[in-house]
Amino acid sequence: MAFTKGRKTEIVDQYKKWVNQSQAVFVLEYSKMNMKAVDIARAKVRDAGGELHVVKNTLFKIVIDESGMPKSKKFSDKSSIVAFSHNDPAAMAKVIADITKNTEVFKVKGGYLGKQLLDQSQVKALADLPPLPVMRARVLGMLLAPASQLVRTLAEPARSLAGVFKAYSEKEATPAAS
Q1: Contacts of residue 46, Cβ cutoff 8 Å, sequence gap at least 6
Q2: CA separation for the pair 144, 125 (Å, rounded)
Q3: How far apart are CA 111 and CA 73, in angstroms?
Q4: What is the pTM of this model?
Q5: What is the pLDDT of residues 54-82, one digit of tens each?
Q6: Residue 23: is its pLDDT beyond 80?
Q7: Cβ atoms of residues 34 and 115 within 8 Å
Q8: Distance between CA 35 and CA 39 in Å, rounded?
Q9: 36: closest CA among 44, 28, 25?
Q10: 92 neighbors 119 (Cβ within 8 angstroms)
């Protein structure tokens, strides 16, 4: 289907908007695609805080060129469907890995994390990272560990002294009760 120049400009502007709003962009190849597969994939991507759109390769290439992102020849081969991650790139990469697992409909071409080009193996590595809340909890735990250890170290002499006083008072109380 041919687009007018005005319509192409609108489409490029929409692609730019999606790319600018995204923390990560994942490009997938599709073949033998049906609406059921697309609807399932879109629902999973939406649940992860993103969007999934079929793009016209030549127009998407214009957006990539204008944004200053590194180019990849793989992205203009065959048909492309693009997942735009607005919140958590690792969660979106997990969704992409789930969508592409055990299917011939979708295959990962690569993507972008910010403006850094990712190949298939890097997208898989990103998918293997724990989700953002888990990462935050781990960092918080690492930050709090030295502080709690310091508090325990400072409190230990007082705790020991309290134990001595308690033992002494119990020892004094036992003969008086007899």
Answers
A1: 52
A2: 28
A3: 12
A4: 0.69
A5: 888 888 888 888 888 887 777 777 888 89
A6: yes
A7: no
A8: 6
A9: 44
A10: no
Q: Which residue has the tokens 């048909």?
A: 79
| C-alpha–C-alpha distance, residues 27 and 105, integer Å | 13
Strands (E), the chain: 24-30, 50-55, 80-85, 106-113, 116-118
By DSSP bridging, strand 80-85 and strand 24-30 are antiparallel
Contacts of 82 (CB under 8 A, 6+ apart): 18, 25, 26, 27, 28, 52, 53, 54, 55, 60
Contact between residue 71 and residue 65 where contact means Cβ atoms under 8 Å apart: yes
Cα–Cα distances (Å) from 51 to 24, 42, 43, 81, 101, in that order, read 11, 7, 9, 10, 19
43's tokens: 């629902």
Distance in angstroms (rounded) separating the CA atoms of residues 126 and 111: 11
- Only one residue has tokens 């289907």, namely 1
